[in-house]
Every structure is written in C-alpha cells, then in structure tokens.
What we know:
By secondary structure, the protein is of the alpha/beta class. It has helices at residues 6-13, 49-52, 61-72, 85-98, 111-126, 143-147, 185-200, 226-237, 289-292, 307-322, 325-344, 374-386, 411-433, and strands at residues 28-32, 35-38, 43-46, 103-108, 130-134, 163-167, 207-210, 240-244, 269-272, 283-288, 350-356, 359-364, 389-390, 392-394, 400-403. The chain has 2 domains: 3-60 and 325-433, Aspartate Aminotransferase, domain 1; 62-323, Type I PLP-dependent aspartate aminotransferase-like (Major domain) (Aspartate Aminotransferase, domain 2). The chain has a 7-stranded mixed beta sheet, sandwiched between helices. Strands 1-2-3-13 form a 4-stranded mixed beta sheet. A 4-stranded antiparallel beta sheet has the order 11-12-15-14. α6 links the parallel β5 and β6. The two termini are 31 Å apart.
Amino acid sequence: MTSDDLLARHRAVLxxxxxxxxAEPLELVAGEGRRVTDAHGRSxxxxxxxxxxxxxxxxxxEIREAVQRQLATGIVHSSTLYLIRQQVELxxxxxxxxxxxxxxxxxxxxxxxxxxxxLLVATNHRRSHQILAVxxxxxxxxxxAMGVTGNRGWSASALNPLQVAWLxxxxxxxxxxxxxxxxxxxxxxxxxxxxxxxxxTAGDVAxxxxxxIQGVGGFTHGPDGLFAAWKKILDEHGILxxxxxxxxxxxxxxxxxxGYQAHGVTPDLxxxxxxxxxxxxxxxxxxxxxxxxxxxxxxFSTFGGNPISTAAGNAxxxxxxxxxxxxxxxxxxxxxGDGLRAAVGELPSVAEVRGKGLMLGVEFxxxxxxEPDPALATAVFEACREGGLLVGKGGLYGNVVRMxxxxxxxxxEAREGLxxxxxxxxxxxxxxxx
Length: 434
C-alpha cells in the first residue's frame, strides 16, 4: 500500500464496480520501454500494456516530442469547428491503411464511442435499429454499445435502444459450433446466420458488428473465413458489416494489419482505438463515404481528434510503419505462443493456448473436461505479478490469462516473460493439484 493509503482513498470516492487488479492493487509511477515501476520501486515487464493500449511502450521519444511540439503552440484544444492539421493528416493516413475504398474517418475518444458512432451511422444508413451481434462479444460500456455486448458480466442493464439478434461465435471449446468438425464450422455459421435472419428479424437489418478476435471474451475467435461466410449472406440483404478492431488493429495479430484481413473480406465500417493513441485518448470509425455520410444532422466530437491526441497518433502510426511492428508482432508472438504450447499446452488444466501475434490467451479448466477454472487463472495471474510480469484476465468465465504486450517487445523480453509465465502456470497448477 502507498504511504498515503491511496487504496482507501480510491474506495472512498470511486464506485465499487470499478475493479482493481490484484489482491494488493498496484500504483504505477514510471515507465520506460516495456517496463513499469510501482510506488515501492519494483519493476515489472508489462505484457498487458494498459489493456493493449500502450502499443509502442512507455516514454517513447518520438511520441513525447510530437506532443511537446503541439503543446508549445499553446493550442491544446480548438474543437472540430476549426481546421486541425494534425487531425487531417492522421485521417489521411488511416484512410490509406484502412483497406476501405473512398474512406472517411470520424475521430472519438474511446473504443466505446467509436462503436457508438458506427452503430449511429449503420442504423441511419439502413433506417433500421435491428442489429446482429455475436455471443461472447464486448463493444463498450455505453448504452447502445452495451446492448450489443454478448457477455453478461459486462451487461449492466437489460434495457436496450436496439433490437439485437445473436450469432454463434465460433468458439472452438464451447457452444454448438465447437461440436462440429472444423471443416464444417463455416457452413454451420452461415446456416446459423440465415436462420437468425429468418426467425429473429423483420424487414431490413442495419448491420452485423463483430470482433475478429474477441478481446474481453478471452481472445476467442472463429476460423479464418468466418467473416466471409457471414458477409456473403449479409450482402444478399444489403446488411452492413462493422469490424470492431479496437484490440486487433494496427498489426497486433502479426499476420495482418487488421483482424478482418484474415477473412478475405472488406468491412463497410471499422472501428479503432487503444493502440493508436499509445495512452492518449484517441479512437474513431472508418467507413465508405456513402455509409459514413448517412448521418442526417450536424454532429461533432468536442474532444475527439484534438490537436494533442492526433499529434500523438501521427507519431504512433509513423513509428509503427517505419519499424515494421506488425512483422515484429509475428516474430516475437511466435516465441510466446509456440513456447507456451510446448511448455504447458499439454497440461490437463490448460484447455487452450490461443491467439495470434501479440494477442495471446491461456484458458484454464478443471482437469478432465472443459469446466472453467477462474480460481486457477487468478492464481496464475497473481503468480505472474510476483514473478515481475503484468498480464491481464478475461473470458466469459474469468478463466483466461490474456497477454497483449507492446508491439515493440524484443525477443529477449519475450523469452523473459515466457519463463515467468511458464513457472507461474506450473507452480499454480501444482498447488491446486496438491
């Protein structure tokens, strides 16, 4: 605990539904590269990056200097009622890398707001409030975004401004599709979509919103090609596809720059956030002009795309591309993924080591089946912290340890973190078994 009892002060003024990690919560006071330091002076290798947000790491000169140059102008904020050079430049870059033809970009402050904006656009374009969403998904904490979140633990209200129909996620461990041979799952997913459209919807449907890899859901994902199987049917009905790239974007999966590219389709809208700001509040939605222009009223985002955050965003995207961090995610992610599968993948308590690039999860179950074991996941989570490694938790049942390190992670750091992870898993499994 910190000298001024920060934990007690936190609990006295902040809501109880805001969770804190760890039995003894941490205050992080400094960071450099891929490491952070707590209030007691202990250093940790960070494999969660502020929930996949500190994508380039900590104290990066190029980003710091870009922000300082903007600060030196005296203009921290002007609102989008005025031209913002940094915003225009970043929008041009994002439009180019989005893969969406004739793209337009609207900036917001968070992934939640980005998804809200995408839903606003899609429902206006289609003149319908009917939405297709995916089980075990997470799209944000605001009213409509929560309404399309398929994870009860994050759904604080049953009230919903949208009419939502749910698709199977393609989870390879649980659910109806998991019972099928992998070769049959795409056809089954397509059949599921057709049945949902025939039985749970009326008239036009606005969109399907889906994550290529489900973040809060524990990094679960269906087979490559799932979006293509869905989109073939969506196109028959004129239904838009929104790819939620808040966690999968910017090359994190290693094999592609965007998660949707693993499926051989191009979405009508994609949302982005987290890593592009490297800690500065920056997010947005990209879409085809004819779709994004569908909002029939004046709208703007007071702080979205402000001069400071977009100065940071320009520096982040330039750094990302100049240093081929997508390639690094593939190389270094393979060290972690392959290493975990070799070292602990056969343990009875490890149901699956999954993910792509530097987006990896380990799901823990009770031996002998697929019954989730959240207690074991928590034990591994705490043991990693004791070993000097910060990781995340998630999954529908809270039984997945998640890793989303900065994309600048080195091979040496990957092996260091891997050793801590393997020891934490083996020790925790042994203690539970005893």
